Amino acid sequence: MNIVCLDLEGVLVPEIWIAFSEASGIPELKRTTRDEPDYDKLMRWRLGILKEHGLGLKEIQDTIAKIDPLPGAKEFLDELRSLTQVIIISDTFTQFATPLMEKLGWPTIFCNSLEVADSGEITGFKMRIENSKLTTVKALQSIGYETIASGDSYNDLGMIQASKAGFLFRSTDKIKADYPELPAFEEYNDLLTAIKKEL
After folding, report:
1. Per-residue pLDDT for 37 more than 90?
2. Helices 16-24, 57-64: crossing angle, 10 deg rounding
3. Average pLDDT over every residue of 22-32
4. What angle do CA 72, 74, 78 make, to 5 degrees?
5. Active-site residue flag, 15
6. CATH number of 17-64
7. Best CA proximity match to 171, nearest among 189, 183, 161, 159
8. What is the per-residue pLDDT across 84-127, written as a single tens digit (0 to 9) for each?
């Protein structure tokens, strides 16, 4: 039994924080897991910037409402889901992901949740589980699934390396250079072909 585990941002949809950085005019918020391997550190830093600028969940959700999946992402996902089980494993938050899941046809997503005050200020975040992508892949393997994984960032490497087959997709030159053993693709058709060979 195979199951495909995909990252969300950078793979199926644009990076939410980059879109919000552009919408809010705060360039520091462009920093993502492609730049910072420590997700906890990255999120605490982001929340500090939001507080400093008086921005909360509503402002981010207003930006997300205007984000569409990457061109070809829904078609890729639809075809993949017709062939095998697919789970999106993301370090994003349900409060961010839900509108995007609707645009992608409601695939299954495992992600985290934000702690939000009545005022709309994001006061914290609750990770579903530590090292969620790798931990989830290992849990799926423990119940009889062989995993195939793909992502673009540092926080995807654990699940990619632990899987039967793993692929980088639209990753950075640095990650591709540091992990030359991982096949790297830029187009959905090429990624789909590679996954099909493993099914």
Report:
1. no
2. 110
3. 94
4. 120
5. no
6. 3.90.1470.10
7. 183
8. 999 999 999 999 999 999 999 999 999 999 999 999 999 999 99
CATH number for domain 2-13+69-113+126-198, candidates 3.10.290.10, 3.40.470.10, 2.102.10.10, 3.40.50.1000: 3.40.50.1000
**pTM of this prediction?**
0.93
Tokens for 7, please give them. Answer: 């990252």
pLDDT bin (cut points 50, 70, 90) of residue 33 is confident
Ordered strands of the 146-151 beta sheet: 122-126, 108-116, 85-93, 2-6, 146-151, 165-169, 184-185
Q: Which amino acid appears at position 36 of this protein?
A: E
DSSP 3-state of 29: helix
| CB count in 10 Å sphere of residue 113 | 14
State how far the alpha carbon of 96 is from the alpha carbons of 20, 41, 65, 107, 175, in Å.
11, 19, 9, 15, 26
For the question of residue 7 being annotated catalytic, the response is yes
For residue 54 the two structure tokens come to 């008086």
How many residues are recorded in the chain?
Answer: 199
SS3 120: coil
Domain boundaries, the chain: 2-13+69-113+126-198, 17-64
